[in-house]
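Consider the subject:
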Amino acid sequence: MNTTTYASCAGQPARRDFPTNPQKLLLLTPQQMAQADRAAMAAGIPGSRLMQRAGEAVARVVARRWQPCRVAVLCGPGNNGGDGWIAAAWLARHGWSVTVYALGSPAQLRGDARWAASQWPGPVRQGVPLDVPAHDLVIDALFGAGLTRALEGLAAQWLNAAAQAGMPICAVDVPSGLDGATGQTLGKVVPAAVTVTFARAKPGHWLLPGRSLCGELVVADIGIPDEVLSATGVQTWENAPGLWWPHMPRAHLQGHKYTRGHATILAGAQMTGAARLAARAAQRVGAGLVTVAAPPAAWPAVAPALESIMVQRLARRTDWQALLQDARRNAWLIGPGAGVSQTVVDAALDVLAQHRHLVLDADALTASASQARTLFAAIAASHAQGGQTVLTPHDGEFARLFSTEGSKLARASRAAHQAAAVVVLKGADTVIAAPDGRIAINTNAPPSLATAGSGDVLAGLITGLLAQGMPAFEAACAGVWLHGAAARAGGPCLVADDLPAWLADCLATWR
């Protein structure tokens, strides 16, 4: 059995070799996974074989993580329960003490689930409470990722009793009651110590609160061909180097600083550290030149603090427009510490009018809230002429510009289409969405990133990658992932100032 193993979804994923093929990073909704199952069976793979592989994968995961003990396998009425019957039979054959609890009579099961139940040689407990003192471990094979209602009745009682007793739970596909497409809970969901899913992970494994409920995530290969999974038309991926590394800019012997791009960052009059953090990040990620454009009040604070980064004094809007006349300044960042003012909005519109690559962050997003239609029209016009724009809002900034209805994936995708820009909806489960429908969910950000200035560094990373010619979606994905990797390298005492330095080690690892 081939598996991909992650550490706790709620913590820091284990370091591993990421697939170089983006198809290995696909995230399938429950509906898409069901479509792939049907296609695999139509191609000649019996459903019973897929179910047997899935159930045995669950059992092997249990056997690797725990010593033989007394296991209660909770089987639901569908295919998820079928996986449970197979897991129970495998564990019993290998010397484990196994008790099966079923929501219904095996005789009432249909299709492959009925076949799977026939593989269980022992007695079945129906309609009775979980005998908590008689068990050490629970396998939750009640309902899969496609459940559309809250758990109730005996199923809820069993899992609640296990949780109250502190028994570890291994979930099959997802913890019962979790929406595999959105990561949202349908009523109360009991957390799992480990979750075993099949072929590919689902968005709900990585989106909050699902990410905090799945425990350790194991993706087991059950023999569904890659081409079957790709044929579903999925455009959602786990964000990892395999998704964007082929687009990563690389220095060449014939190159010089201008071939590596020139990033220009607008500083504000008061919170000058934000622009400096962004500038250092853009430089560290490879931009050949970086300029911070600072108003007169900020110039004395900014200029002495930066050495290899240039500082340009801005006294009036015409100074900004003069900078735009240099076509070599190909990527711009507006927002970190810039202040919430019409001046900031005008600066963004000036850049868009020149069809330059642009990252809008923080204050620039808030300042544009009352002029969202004007901003989006300017972005669309710039995009039509080759300019690429990335918006990097957190939830509060996002709500000022876009509708907050629907799941995080739906919100980000709709916003990207509306704005004609790549949208980086930040958080512990950052979502990167492109106007063409592509989506990536980031999975490597540690809690230590919740510190002042880390967002400024992220904006600078994306700007530096855009300056080097990286496409906007890939630049955003790479910036977000490298941001998380640098934070993990920096450890729990991280402050934002540390991130650019740690970035060098992360880039060296993947060069």
About this structure: The first strand starts at residue 3 and ends at 8. The chain has 20 helices and 18 strands. The two ends are 30 Å apart (CA to CA).
